[in-house]
Write a structure and sequence with these properties.
single chain; about 575 residues; Alpha-Beta Plaits; 5 domains; six-stranded antiparallel barrel; 19 strands; about 45% helix; globular
Length: about 575
Amino acid sequence: MAILREIKAVRENVGLWMRDDYTVLQFSGKDAGSWLHSQTTNDVKGLRSGAGNLQAILDRQGRVQAFFSLHRWEEEFWAIIEKKQLPALLARVESHLILEDVTVEEVGRDTPQVLLEGPRAVVLLANQHGDPLEAAQGLPSEAFAFSPIRILDHDVLIFREGESGEDGFLLLPGPGESELLFEKLEDVGIDFGIIAVSEAARSTLILESGFPRWQEGIDETRIVSETPLAQPAVSYEKGCYLGQEVVARLKAYGSPKQQLVALLIADDGAVMPDSGSTLLEGEKKVGLLVRCAFSPTCDTWLAWAYMDRDHRVSEATYQLGVEGRTEVLSATVAHLPAFQAPTRRENAVRYYDEALGHFEADHDDENNTAIEILMEALLLAPDFEDAYEALGVILHRHHRVDEAILFMKKLASLNPNCVMAHTNLSVFYMSQGLIQEAEDEKAMANQLEFKQTLDARQAEKAAKQERERLKAEAEGRIAMFLEVLEIDPEDPVATMGLGQAYMQLERHGDAIPYLETATHVQKDFSAAFLNLGKCHEFLGNSEAARSTYKKGIEVAGRKGDLMPMREMERRLKQLK
């Protein structure tokens, strides 16, 4: 099927599509930044020119009225927003913009946006310039960052954001240029495995990415804390904005009654439920299904659903009915996104390992595959020292000594203290008969090695002093907490503190009874479950650790303690 081929291209190489359901709103004027900061959920004042983030506007009850990405260029701000959300944002401007010097203008309605997404998106764009490595470093690397570039004879604004969850870019060309730019990218992308993505494949990629669109997972009835916006689009440090009190209260004292999660539904031949279906456990309503479709990446049916506190524990499997139907679905809960794409660094490491495999198999030093793959790794991670070193060594083996020297110099420039950069340069220069240069590089390598030996000894001495200081502090806390427990043997702060102090002294067996007491006294103490599981892990009690983490994940899921919950999930997977 075409859709499977398109999704595979995005996940493994690069996909290309256009969207005309988004627009751009420009905010200018001396008060634009301060006014936006007062109205939105995320930081605006702290954005530097060329940076961006996710934002939302709320009503007084903390319900989402619109969400968008916001980007700063000098004293202007640009909001990239779905066209169907635009009226809500303009209504906020109309009702809350009074005497401030702010001008608002829609500048992107008639210009379709071009999206280039996939692990090789950077590689494709970088190779359209004379020096791909320099070009890659000029592309935006931070999420929502952007910059003006010239690509394929088009002046374009390029943003580090997308829809599939993969690495990639959103391109905004000039008016009337989107279709031509699309065609040119499709032509030059053939060697990189590019495929044009249909609207059907785009919809599935968005489902897998776990980030909803308006009225497909988020609408004006939803409190922001219930949605995937709660982490990336909300700053819990900034000052007052409309709805902030509700958001802060939920963060401090509890978790929302419902939350959007992924459901991985077993394909047992049942007809999948429609959007808007009520999910039941027995006769009890436990959730509301938002979307459901087959996910080629997850290789199962994937749904988004708002589930209640007792039915959104990650990796828990529930037998769910659908209101008005007789079938029962076996659904396993997962955090959004259900599929987590590799980072640039992770892809670069994968390419590096693949290149070394080709190099080891190339006994005659005639195959350039390892060199080509390492070049791609460096385009994804321009600070990847091991890739520079490997590339230099392989180029030297292929008698491409000038190129080997070039890349080893780049490594030395990247890390002036890299011993191997100078050691290899010495070898390379010697092979060219440049004896003085070789001797100079060898001397530099010896000097750095000697310095690093001294630095290591000093670091070890400092680390020993720090360990002794922490040990003394921990012993002092133990004495203090034991005094508290003589008065109240079940004080949760003292039992937790005592357990942590024993952990710091690596007395994990002594920590366990106190941490167990903390979990019994305060049954939603997520951090205590995490520390208790760590102690069992350290002592080799894998079964006890697994049991503790499972219980802790359930507790943290109900409470909304995301950080300890995800740490316990990570450790539980490692134990399996």
